[in-house]
Amino acid sequence: MNNVVLIGRLARDPELSYTANTQTAKCVFTIAVDRPRRQGEDQGADFIRITVWGRQAETCDRYLSKGRQVAVMGRIQTGSYKNREGVTVYTTDVVADRVEFLGGGNGEGRRDAFANRDTFTGREPSFGSASQDTGFSAPAEPLAGFDDMPDSFQAAEDDIPF
Q1: Is the pTM of this model over 0.85?
Q2: Fold of 4-36+43-153
């Protein structure tokens, strides 16, 4: 099984390109993922390159910017190439199946979805719910604690019939 789930912040703005033959969108960006920290050690991070394809790639390019927090689900893909000096360089990337926008980022990015209002409605762009079509969902809102929930959401004491 080759499955990866990461949460991190973009280290720089995404780069969008299109394949020559099929004109399929490809977006590449790097996220910084915090390493577990032991007491007395400085916080470290791993910088992981993410590749997204198709409509998700175009959406990432449009709405993501440096500093924005994202969750990425995908798979690890390794590869290699020869650089100009003829030395083999090995690569490890995550090919994303799904990208979810989490925090609001640094608030200064030109692509920040919440700074760009729809010119027709004057409302913020809607990402809708998570779907197979786009793979995106609306930014996560903090969940209310169980004590703050209305009575209709409290756990029932009855047995569940299944």
Answers
A1: no
A2: OB fold (Dihydrolipoamide Acetyltransferase, E2P) (2.40.50)
